[in-house]
Amino acid sequence: MNATPSRRSILKGAALGAAAIAGSFRVFDFEAAAAPASNGIFGYGVASGDPLGTAVVIWTRATPPCEGRQIATPGSGLGRPIFVRWEVARDQAFRHVIKRGGVLTSAASDHTVKVDVTGLRPYTRYYYRFHAEGETSPVGRTQTAPDERDRLHALRFGLVSCSNYTGGYFAAYRALGQRDDLDFVLHLGDYLYEYGNGADRSGPPELIGVRDGIPETETIDLTGYRLRHALHKADPDLALAHRQHPFITIFDDHEVADNAWNDGAVNHSPETEGSFQSRRKVAYQAYLEWMPFRLPEQRVIPHQGTRFFRSFSFGPLGDLSVLETRQNRTEQVNVPPFSTRGGGFIPIGAPEVEAQLNDPARHLLESEQMTWLKGSSRGKPWHLIGNQTVLSPLMIPGPLLNLPPTMTLINSDQWDGYRAQQTELINHIAAASNNVVVLTGDIHSSWAVEIPSKASADYTSVGVEFVCPSVTSDGFYELARTRVPAGTPPETVVATTRQLTGVLSGRNPWIKYLDGVGHGYALIDVTPDRVQADFHHTPVPTTAQPDPRVHKDVTTAYTTSWQTLAGTKKATLAAGPVGARPDEPA
């Protein structure tokens, strides 16, 4: 047959000539990276994000059609510019199109398309799609924020963090994508991980060769970060969640490198990997290209570097302040041999360590961001704060880390490692006229915590912190598996994990709920009377299913609910999961 070769056949044939095609670009697993491109111009799906009352960002990647043997795979720098038209409608059939336009995209933005659609109505559901070169994208569903000055609406959203691709299948994203009652998904960081497939790989060994990172090496350059973002956008479970709900996102460390601080990271070696500032710059570039993220107006609020922190209003109900805690943070306190770079579990009590932890010059937020945060959300019932690492004090007894019982440790990468700012923020929360709820990720486990006025048994609760589990990244259960003999039944490991988390809660009485076994997400529901967190987890590991993350069809299920009632500043067990929404978007 002399038919014109299809895009898919060209892609398969191109693998052999990848090096020649890539030219000076890094050679990578060509067919795997290009797979979504074989599904047409819009093979990487669609997404939306940063919903305001009258605007929302819509996103796609428009892969140019094949020309000869050149495939415009992510990060390759290949492909001609392509004009993309977009539409926003009130109905899924696009009979009532209310906004439309066009944009030219090119290799300069990795052929990503991002449009800030304005002039929309508050608390309204919309549908959107893209067109180019005779092809049409999947239809995305999105909605604007419930932000009307004098009208109270429901507010419900998913809370997620820490989605390591090699750590397992994204059951939490699929479960969120199947829900029809969310206003948005709040992602608190570690949307992707920079690790390679070698010694630095993280996740179940059963998925080696089955669910590998692309590129196969650690991401250190623009090509690598673009490819890693593309890999995540191509995941069907994450693609479903993006297609169904707008996301509000912020990066943590792994979008660049592990335990990053202002001029370095644990796994960055300038001698072999070049300037950390250069690495971070391209990581941020890829993040802004591949995420439906609206960069805030840079001139309005003082900041250092690029301003990523921003706020969202939900009418008379409350506000959400989203922090950014990596770009300008002071390097973590290190205590060799416990930690040598980037912080970690360090013993406290020694005068020289205490002096560093209490140093007011050390900061996690730059001073301008702290000033902005303290001036945010006044006169409304609820102030929600999206935050990367645990704010509440966490005292870790030595025996939990096989150390002497006289030893107490903290994680210096969390707010505990920046005590002056930690105290400043906790004191501000205590003095706030409204109710403050801190929403946190990073620690790969589920928590309901009363933020204590001081780290002692006679504390006063000044607010509540809800911490979501990881989507896939190793948690307490996986850590416990490494500390028991090989072949120990999963049921025993689960019991050991719960014993360890019980000891941790006993040492920190402000922890009211802690689960270190399940992965998944938290559902946050806000009313004038309370904020409730419903935790949804993957199955508890058993001998029949030792690691649920390795099963493609595993799903999450409701586990428990915790709440904070307006005016109490305390965390209490809720009667059950949230019910139907009191109202729906138009």
Describe this structure in words.
The chain has 586 residues and is of the alpha+beta class. It folds into 2 domains: 7-143, Purple acid phosphatase-like, N-terminal (Immunoglobulin-like); 160-190 and 197-203 and 296-573, Purple Acid Phosphatase, chain A, domain 2. The chain has helices at 7-14, 18-22, 30-34, 171-177, 222-234, 236-244, 270-273, 276-290, 351-358, 367-374, 419-431, 476-481, 490-507, and strands at 46-49, 56-61, 82-89, 97-105, 112-117, 125-132, 135-136, 140-143, 155-160, 184-187, 247-249, 310-313, 318-322, 345-347, 382-387, 396-397, 408-411, 435-440, 446-452, 461-467, 511-515, 520-526, 530-537, 557-565, 572-573. The longest helix is centred in the C-terminal third of the chain and has 18 residues, at 490-507. The model is unreliable at 1-33 (pLDDT under 50).
Corresponding CATH superfamily of the largest domain: Alkaline phosphatase D (PhoD)
Q: Ends: how far apart? A: 53 Å
Strand order within the widest beta sheet:
11-10-9-22-23-24-25
What's the CATH first level of the largest domain? Alpha Beta
Q: How many domains would you count in the coordinates?
A: 2
Number of helices: 13
Largest sheet: 7 strands, mixed
